[in-house]
Design brief:
Among the domains are: 148 residues, no CATH class; 131 residues, Rossmann fold (3-Layer(aba) Sandwich), CATH 3.40.50.10380; 200 residues, NAD(P)-binding Rossmann-like Domain (Rossmann fold). It is 42% helix and 10% strand. The chain contains 30 helices and 18 strands.
Length: 715
């Protein structure tokens, strides 16, 4: 912003005003009276977003500001762009010249007017939008989802921005508008409308009014998260080509190799977080190719609503390297590349160029990998986790939320502290990237709980795949199953539990206390298996984690019926609380949603200025979530706090991540100073995080004349 104002000062006579609200800077730039009305300030440039997630003065880089700064004006304006303020000319830029003298004066500035018009159309969404007298600025604003307020424009804005008469006359606040749209959603729900219909209704709102969309999502995140994301987003991805209406995010393909760095400059402004997928394993639906963009968009909507990221600073990405899905290749409307998926060195060259391009363009951005197939997910994470600010939500995020659920389950069981996790025995169904990420983090938690060596901790885990129990006799496929190797070596095949033993046999003979599922096999937890868990445990821990709902290993009703409602239950997709048919006991159906982890983890990493995401940051996130459980929630069988409090949950997670980054020497100096002067409750740090969170409120775009007397020098 300062670079823009310095440039404006050199090139034209201006009067500016700035206003700060909630960390955002709103600038109204008014040109000399020759091009604007002195009373109504017809010609203005404004922005409604600013850097709110990285306001550390220690890291200001003037060179960076020149590169990534505002580029509304060129270095030189047209030669006839002199200051006409001393001449007697028309005040209203939209009025036609009336006298011969005015016509001559008008023609002198025509080239400048034309140039301004071209610049205002240059990009429909930008940090700076220039509104000029020779364009239909009111229509442009109403068709711009970032700046459109619909009936939320006040009288002054309607007059000065040219929308008076273009919207209904009555004013409604954003709160009232959100209530109206919510009533529409409720009506759709009560009429048993399909969730995909509700998804499309919300996407249409997002296309019209982005601020209102995020306000609605924030106010009703508990009910709308399953509509915006899993499980509904799965159906949206399956039909993405047919639902496609408006381009969002960026696509990088195998044909873009050698050009990705320059392509990143096609994206507007700064980026704080990137969610990228190659569409090879979308949820449990398989290879969906370019349709994977839907999962990146949905994930970032939750980063905004749950974590408080500015929607203008997030970037959804799909790496289209082809698809092996025959139905998509035969679909004439498929929006992605019509070719087989890349493999081997060609595939990793695309990944590497993309990673380098993002880091060069936005060196402080966090990159989250989403829905990469197992054979690539672990290798990609291993290749970049120590050099880039990145993490894989399927592997690390899911693991952290299951660990948080495990700590919550210990509280329900009445455990004195987290160290009692070493007394639990886990059966994991699913040896893919998600399943192995979960057991790897649980293994470290068991080992660090005290009293157990690394080898002894392995004895607490039984890993199952589609061929049954994995033991030391199993021939593993590398590198795909490299993460399974230490667990397989530690599990010696016996007569009672040979390699390939069935799930029921493993549950029975291992006397396990926790049954976890990441297999994507519907109904894998049969009634016999669930009943056995209930017989050998007073409060069995049952976590069917596969998404979407159609792939869940069991339902809440299945678990409640087989265990008489005694199970501590948490699933990947949402289920209703279930009642036992025998005792009438109600079993709480928790949802182990990654939403508990990734928004706060990302927010803390960005605010701290960390260079990498460490394993300890993820563990700290899990502990923060479990620590937020209240006594009343524990009595009800809750293992997670209420999702409706996700903003505060994310803030608390971010605080723990920032403190961990500081312990590792990764936090920037200004953040360390806050921590050093803070109290035991992290009051200052929590306030710092809350102030950085984006709040979906309408920002003012024009100001009263008496408030705009500041000059560029004053700023």
């Amino acid at each position: 912003m300062r670079a823009f104002l310095r440039l404006a000062k050199k090139t034209t006579t201006t009067t500016t005003t700035t206003a700060r609200k909630g960390g955002d800077v709103v600038v109204a730039l008014f040109f000399s009276p020759r091009f604007s009305s002195s009373s109504s300030s017809r010609l203005c440039a404004f922005t409604s977003s600013a850097t709110t997630l990285d306001d550390d003065d220690d890291d200001d880089d003037p060179k960076r500001e020149e590169v990534d700064g505002f580029s509304v004006f060129p270095q030189e304006l047209p030669s006839n762009a002199r200051d006409p303020s001393k001449d007697d000319f028309i005040n209203d830029a939209t009025s036609p010249p009336r006298t011969r003298e005015q016509q001559l004066e008008y023609s002198k500035h025509e080239s400048l007017r034309d140039w301004l018009g071209r610049q205002s159309r240059k990009r429909s969404v930008d940090e700076i939008v220039v509104l000029t007298g020779n364009i239909h600025r009111g229509s442009e604003i109403l068709h711009n989802a970032v700046y459109n307020k619909g009936t939320g424009f006040n009288h002054s804005e309607r007059e000065r921005l040219g929308v008076r008469g273009l919207v209904p006359p009555r004013y409604f606040s954003i709160k009232e508008q959100a209530e109206k749209v919510w009533q529409q959603q409720v009506a759709m729900r009560e009429s048993n409308a399909a969730k995909i219909g509700r998804w499309r209704h919300l996407q249409a709102l997002k296309d019209r009014n982005e601020t209102l969309f995020y306000r609605l999502l924030q106010d009703h995140v508990e009910e709308l998260a399953p509509v915006i994301y899993t499980p509904t987003v799965g159906e949206a991805c399956l039909n993405y080509s047919r639902f496609f209406r408006r381009a969002r995010g960026m696509y990088f393909t195998k044909d873009d190799v050698g050009h990705m760095h320059s392509m990143t400059y096609n994206w507007r402004g700064d980026v704080k977080i990137v969610v990228v997928t190659d569409g090879s394993r979308v949820l449990g639906l398989g290879d969906l190719g370019a349709h994977g963009m839907g999962i990146s968009i949905g994930k970032l909507d939750l980063y905004v609503a749950g974590g408080g990221f500015d929607p203008q600073e997030v970037l959804p990405v799909c790496l289209d390297v082809g698809t092996n899905n025959k139905s998509l290749l035969n679909d004439k409307w498929y929006v992605g590349l019509n070719s087989q998926r890349l493999e081997g060195g060609d595939y990793y060259r695309v990944i590497d160029e993309f990673m380098r391009a993002i880091r060069h363009r936005w060196p402080k951005a966090l990159i989250q990998f989403e829905d990469f197939q197992t054979k690539h997910a672990l290798e990609i994470l291993t290749n970049y986790r120590n050099d880039y600010l990145c993490f894989n939500d399927d592997i690390q995020g899911t693991a952290a939320v299951v660990l948080a659920g495990g700590y919550g389950a210990l509280k329900v069981l009445g455990a004195k502290d987290r160290s009692e996790i070493r007394n639990q025995k886990f059966v994991m169904c699913g040896a893919g990237s998600a399943g192995m990420g979960i057991v790897s983090m649980l293994h470290k938690a068991v080992m660090k709980s005290g009293g157990l060596s690394e080898e002894e901790a392995y004895d607490n885990f039984f890993i199952m795949d589609n061929n049954g129990l994995i033991t030391n006799e199993r021939e593993l496929e590398f590198p795909r199953e490299a993460a399974v190797e230490p667990f397989a070596k530690a599990r010696k095949a016996t007569k009672e539990l040979p390699d390939g033993a069935s799930l029921l046999d493993v549950v029975t003979k291992s006397k396990c206390t926790a049954l976890l599922g990441a297999s994507t096999v519907k109904g894998l937890f049969t009634e016999d298996v669930l009943r056995q868990m209930g017989e050998q445990n007073e409060r069995p821990i049952i976590f069917p984690l596969s998404n979407p709902t159609s792939n869940a290993e069991c339902t809440s009703e299945d678990a409640a019926k087989a265990t008489d409602g005694r199970a501590i239950f948490s699933s990947g997709s949402p289920f209703e609380d279930a009642k036992s048919g025998v005792s009438g006991r109600v079993m709480r159906a928790n949802q182990g949603n990654n939403l508990y982890i990734f928004p706060g983890l990302g927010l803390g990493a960005v605010l701290s200025g960390a260079k990498t995401i460490s394993e300890e940051m993820l563990v700290s996130s899990a502990k923060a979530i479990a620590d937020m459980l209240t006594e009343d929630q524990i009595r009800k069988g809750c293992v997670f706090p209420m999702i409706k409090e996700i903003r505060n949950i994310s803030a608390r997670v971010a605080v723990r991540v920032i403190k961990q980054a500081a312990q590792e020497g990764q936090a920037k100096r200004s953040v360390v100073k806050i921590i050093e002067s803070d109290d035991e409750h992290d009051t200052k740090l929590f306030k710092y995080v809350k102030r950085a969170q984006y709040v979906p409120e309408y920002r003012p775009t024009v100001f009263p004349v008496e408030e705009i007397r500041k000059t560029v020098d004053d700023y």
